[in-house]
Amino acid sequence: MVKLIDWREIIAELELTAHHHNALALPPVYGAYCGDMMSDVLARARRGSLWITIQRHRNVIAVASLVGLSGVVISGGRVPPPDTVALAEKEGVPLFSTPLDSFHAAGRFYYLLTRAGLINPGENSTAEPQK
Hints:
Helix content: 25-40%
CATH class: Alpha Beta
Number of domains: 1
Strand order of the largest sheet: 1-5-4-3-2
Number of strands: 5
Order of helices and strands: HEEHEHEHEH
Distance between the termini: 6 Å
Oligomer: single chain
Structural class: alpha/beta
Number of helices: 5
CATH architecture: 3-Layer(aba) Sandwich
Strand content: 5-15%
CATH superfamily: HprK N-terminal domain-like
CATH topology: Udp-n-acetylmuramoylalanyl-d-glutamate--2,6- Diaminopimelate Ligase, Chain: A, domain 1
């Protein structure tokens, strides 16, 4: 059985503000990816991950949808423009912002993943999450 982190925990721990319709289904989250280069996310992010980035333009949603990410968190107190929010709703991609910078958001999420037993501290960062 795959362990999951409850979205309520993620939202509280990362101080997230939702920028999508409340009725949007929040898919399971199995890990995270932190990065700002679209090509890097396309090449390395894994389906079911939560993407933490400073980017806030429409291409973020296109990449998240293509990769099959479980959501996007825009860090550093940045807020997505209306066209990004509209595309996120159209594509069904949960979109959030946080006042935390990427380092602290990723650190807090790492803590949640570790506490849930989805990863082991000190493991290779490219290792598959535990199931």
